[in-house]
Amino acid sequence: MAVLNEHGDRARPLAGGTDLLVKARANVWELDAVVDVKNIPELMNLTVGKNGLSIGAGVPCYQVYENSEVADEYPGIIDGTSIIGGIQIQSRAGLGGNLCNAAPSGDGIPALIAHSAVARIAGPSGTREVAVEEFCTGPSRTVLQLGELLVSIEVPKPATNSGAAYTRFIPRNEMDIAVAGVGVYVVLDDSGNNFESARIALASVGPTPILATEAGDILAGKPVNDETIGSAASLARDAASPITDMRGTIEQRKHLIEVLTGRMIKQAVERARG
Amino acid sequence: MTKSSPSKVHVTTTINGQEHELLVPPYMSLLDTLRELIGLTGTKEGCLDGNCGACTVSVDGRIVDSCLVLGPEVDGKTVDTVEGMATTDGLHPLQQAFLEEAALQCGICTPGFLVAAKGLLDNEPSPSEGRIRHWLAGNLCRCTGYDKIVRAVQKASS
User: How many Cβ atoms from other residues are within 10 Å of residue A189's Cβ?
Assistant: First the structure.
């Protein structure tokens, strides 16, 4: 931390390096120092506990998706983690770096938001917690202040009768950046026929990953059917504020959000019903 | 250089079964460490940003893009490159299969494909075609169209 503090913007923590080394090489970041944080045990810890899942900020993707307990309890997080880059990237890159890189398209982030995950940050005056949906403040920008370090991501234990899912649209089969992505977490009642609550998060359709609050809230107390799912998907479309770029147009992206939201709600419901 | 940036980092690492002690500039990639400090030029530089997989090596049994690893990070670790695949008895089965199936043209991507495919077959001796294609998605080849590479990996699997 002393080195990071001394050099300010010209020093960065190194976890997987798959974004950092690319940016440093391209002179997007001009650096005097990088600090390898993989020797800090707390940052490399992955625990599935009674109260939830704790993912150290330096834990690489493969350790998350190869963990059978995580796969059983948090399949929506696995959906995102297992499609970040290729196998080589997944050996190094992790969800902590995905969050700190703060790309609107980060595939690891929407499921974390949908799960109400919290970022645990260490700083000069102790630790603080920030909801993942508030962590990114713009492309490549986060709430992290000088002298602060992301320590872990804390995911609450999923409720009974809950399910989650994430998917993205890309024109290739693998190794691409999301044109649009949707993560969903739903809680059903004991009958499995009604929503108790839902959270829906969107990727690549705004300057940050987006929590589509109204789209999730409208499902609360409603029966599981095409009409209610369609109304949530429509609100998710309204919450998307994408740009047109080389990957897709505004209209295509909004359409994708509506389609993918419907699909992911249905998949989350299937998982909730077991 | 500041006090936090030593001019060289002392690194002890096992490469293809042989221990090496190196003094590595702090920001030298593992790719350059292998090629320039040790003379292992089998590992190729492609895109330098983690898209093409030409520089794939294995670190502690996991395949990585060596352009996105710093040399000092492999201190205490085991690195395996394409040069470690053949033995005095002959080519590795994957190398033999790549030859027989003509799974290469220009050859720049080949070391990366071989190391990546070995990383798969070492843990999953009989992967499906879909699994092979998924596993090799981080390796790009602009010559073969991939079919011959996939066939070669299938041939080398048991």
Answer: 14
Distance between first and last Cα of chain A = 45
Q: Is the pLDDT of residue B1 over 50?
A: no
Closest CB to A91 among B4, B5, B63: B63
Q: Do residues A120 and A152 lie in contact, with contact meaning Cβ atoms separated by under 8 Å?
A: yes
β-pairing verdict for B18-24 and A149-156? unpaired
- In 3D, which of B56, B59, B58 has the Cα closest to residue B73? B59
Number of domains in chain A: 2
8 Å CB contact of B70 and A14: yes
Structural domain of A128: 2-28+41-156
* Residue A267, pLDDT score: 98
Alpha carbon of residue B113 to chain centroid: 8
Give domain limits for chain B.
9-84, 93-156
**Residues A170, A171, A177, A178, Cα dihedral to 10°:** -30
What rounded mean pLDDT belongs to chain A?
A: 96
Q: pLDDT band for B4, please (50, 70, 90 cuts).
A: low
The residue of chain A nearest to residue B131, with distances taken between CA atoms, is A87
- Among A267, A248, A241, A100, smallest CA distance to A183 is for A267
Q: In terms of Cα–Cα distance, which of B47, B42, B36 is closest to B16?
A: B42
Examine the fold and report which residue of A116, A133, A156 is the final residue of a domain before the chain moves on.
Answer: A156
What beta strand segments (E) does B27-120 contain?
A: 56-59, 62-65, 78-80
Last residue of a domain, one of A127, A156, A185: A156
Burial (CB count <10 Å: 0-12, 13-18, 19+), residue A260: buried
Least CB–CB distance from B2: residue in A24, A25, A32: A32
pLDDT attached to residue B121: 98
Nearest-CA neighbor of A60 among B46, B147, B59, B85? Answer: B59
Total number of residues shown for chain B? 158
Search chain A and give the residue with CA nearest B2.
A32
Please state the pTM of the whole predicted model: 0.96
B93-156 CATH fold: DNA polymerase; domain 1 (1.10.150)
